[in-house]
Amino acid sequence: MENVLAVLNLGDLAQAFSKMGMFPVFDLAYYIVSILYLKYEPGSVEVSRRSPVASWLCAMLYCFGSYILADIMLGSSPVDYFQYNSHILLASAVWYLIFYCPLNLFYKCVAFLPVKLVLVALKEVVRTRKIAAGVHHAHHAYHHGYFIMVIVGYVKGSGVALISNFEQLLRGVWRPETNEVLNMSFPTKASLYGAILFTLQEAHWLPVSKSTLILVFTLFMATTKVVMTARHSHGSPFSLIESWTCHLLFGSPLGGGEEDNHHPPAGAAPSSPVKTKEELSEGARKRKAKKAE
Amino acid sequence: MENVLAVLNLGDLAQAFSKMGMFPVFDLAYYIVSILYLKYEPGSVEVSRRSPVASWLCAMLYCFGSYILADIMLGSSPVDYFQYNSHILLASAVWYLIFYCPLNLFYKCVAFLPVKLVLVALKEVVRTRKIAAGVHHAHHAYHHGYFIMVIVGYVKGSGVALISNFEQLLRGVWRPETNEVLNMSFPTKASLYGAILFTLQEAHWLPVSKSTLILVFTLFMATTKVVMTARHSHGSPFSLIESWTCHLLFGSPLGGGEEDNHHPPAGAAPSSPVKTKEELSEGARKRKAKKAE
Amino acid sequence: MENVLAVLNLGDLAQAFSKMGMFPVFDLAYYIVSILYLKYEPGSVEVSRRSPVASWLCAMLYCFGSYILADIMLGSSPVDYFQYNSHILLASAVWYLIFYCPLNLFYKCVAFLPVKLVLVALKEVVRTRKIAAGVHHAHHAYHHGYFIMVIVGYVKGSGVALISNFEQLLRGVWRPETNEVLNMSFPTKASLYGAILFTLQEAHWLPVSKSTLILVFTLFMATTKVVMTARHSHGSPFSLIESWTCHLLFGSPLGGGEEDNHHPPAGAAPSSPVKTKEELSEGARKRKAKKAE
How many domains does chain A have? Predict the structure, then answer.
């Protein structure tokens, strides 16, 4: 009896959670963390001094890249989301405060670890909702387009990471030897797996309600990202299972695909590929960002 | 009494000016000046010999880049404007005459300074109309999408400059260290300010009629560009006010953002960033274009 | 009398040929040959081991690049074709077999010259149909948009070749000094000429039925490509007439535009531009692909 009640309560909770509005609290956290990552990028502070327009455009790509990409994928106007003036103004205010606040006060507040951990957790709530909404939107446009659902959910979750080469180009940086598909970071991988799960759910191949899936996936993403941020770690929880699957299916050398995420041998460091932005250790980034001030 | 009449007359004049058709005279001037700038680009003459298709495509991007970009921004077909066969044929004829005319006769005529100054003035008439049309078009699609109006007006005014990295790539040139957003030339900046003004007008926040704004902005653009072309100058009339605004708002060093436009110190020249195409001194370009013949 | 009958029969044959379904046999051949060319690309086997997702995306670009580009050109969703799950699954199966089949068995079978020649011929059947369909589709959207018809037919015929720079970027390779428009390979050129022919036919300026044109163009493409593949040749049958036309119309040096396709002087080889993928000698590619195993 109590068991059933617990299930009912969990269902209600999941239902309520999946209906909760994201604007403005969660979206604000999303904008802050995203633009924080932009500030960590080497050279971005200098760009913000030299060309505020380029810096603002990059910030908008960081905040709304997922909407832009999803709109492109579904053949809509890429600037469609820019009709929501309040969202753009909020993100612009965050951009201004993070880059130009006197004494760098705002940056210091939000980059303070306990504050940042809360913001990171809130950001993952938004990411999960975006994946679910992307899959649902694609399902609406293509009823049996399972590949399209996965693609749209994937770009909604990954956002600017997937076009980081072109976002960097806007800041005058060009690193063609790597990209987010070739070297997926944890959030990009998780977005892909999440998009597959939500597509399976939308196709009724997964015996679970969407609200429950949202709740479970959010909890998984938030805890994982918080732990990774707290530990300055960039190992992925998927690496062991991925390493074996890739070995069996694609003949990848065992642990080869992921080796640079775990204890890279000291000598290999100089030749290792350029780390993607979300893979850089937090400490290194902060030092760089501080020096650039 | 006479004052009122003068105002009425000015209003009528502005009205008539804003209704004036652009095809074929003004558009022709636009195509000639645009493809002239393409010929000034180092390597473009060689490309026209080796691959006429690539050269023609670049010429089309120079002439119709603003339509292509605006169509992309609003989610239409990027080649939508190519349905106007007469415009494409006219631009193609200009391309052929500028690149392949025997004895380089056509090029010499239109690059002759007095002729060129007239053409440059006519081109600015078209640019202003494009910005106004872009803002109006975006307003039609998104009634309160003020950011979208500015963006569409901006790309309509700037045209190929905003995608110059990819236009260069088509000719086998790749200069990732700079782009038109990072180092805005005068026409790109003016297009941005113009797009903001026309958006304010469209939103009724500017107490002026659209035809008057078109007339005033056209006069400003045409005189400025004619003076700049005549003087082989590339200083911007905005630089003083921009320098102070950027200093106050974005903490840019005073005169720093613009310093390479004014008397760069002799020693700094070799390390200065690559100049954007419309910033190169006219003399240097002509010499290059002549050598390439 | 018999003459008329022969003509009638040819007309019927052409009619039947132009109605023939492409799925699955012809499409399968298209996928196999396309992904074979991907495997010939230096580094692609290594990418398939390191990042199966990037490798799969490249394979999809090779198979469906023409649909993606045509959809972009006409303002539709670029992933519109991904709604056909059976096509995507078939292409994915081919990708898996070519890259990961034990003992490389599938690759060895389809790369065996007699088999490959048949597949290459079948691929050209699909290419011609795609050009015709592209022109027809564009004609439907823009009744008098002759330039749009040529552009859409061209991208439908050329497919991934036109975006090879960006396809390479996905694999971490960046070669900005060349592209498929600057150095057109035989299939790209033939697609352009085919698109022009089909546009003339659609505009009723060519006194021939569409089914006859499809039959004749298919025969021309299939025989030419089969002969070229059998001979490991990459000279184009158009080169003589092109060389003269370009000389007369565009002042290109005689034989200059094409010289690197015919007997390049031994000393010039190291400085010659990077060959495009379909221009590399088959032998060289196979050696590279084998070494990469």
Answer: 1
